[in-house]
Write a structure and sequence with these properties.
By secondary structure, this protein is mainly β. It is built from 1 helix and 10 strands, in the order αββββββββββ. The chain is 14% helix and 46% strand.
């Protein structure tokens, strides 16, 4: 009987912890290439109930002389008109800087736009992972 109660308690704790910390989600859009000085845009929609977000950019150089460019972050309340977030929320793509994680302690926007722009002669592939967090309830 003690084993059964212990197992039930452990299962409850595992479910409660998992509900607070989800795995990162990979965006499923097809805009994944940055060719030369071109741009590529990805979007994340933050639905009601989430108060924090983390995003991770992963850039892979496919060809070209060097990996260079920027990824800028914008947010919107209506999904149409976007405002750029703080400069610290951007990423300068360089051979020594091909991944970055940005944490947003608050998510004031409804929709987030991530714009990657290349600079030079290159072909880059980029992936955006994100995770949303709900507030802790006691």
């Amino acid at each position: 009987m003690k084993k059964l109660i212990t197992l039930c308690l452990l299962a409850f704790v595992a479910i409660a912890v998992n509900a607070q910390f989800g795995a990162g989600v990979k965006t499923t859009d097809t805009a994944k290439w940055i060719i030369n000085t071109g741009t590529s845009t990805k979007y994340v929609t933050v639905t009601a109930g989430y108060n924090a977000m983390a995003v991770q950019f992963v850039v892979t150089k496919i060809s070209g002389t060097t990996a260079a460019g920027t990824i800028l972050v914008y947010y919107s309340l209506d999904g149409t008109n976007y405002v750029r977030t703080a400069t610290a929320d951007s990423m300068n793509i360089a051979p020594s800087n091909l991944t970055k994680i940005i944490k947003f302690d608050t998510t004031p926007g409804y929709k987030y736009k991530f714009v990657a722009t290349g600079s030079g002669t290159e072909a880059l592939n980029w992936t955006l992972y994100y995770t949303l967090r709900k507030p802790w309830k006691e």
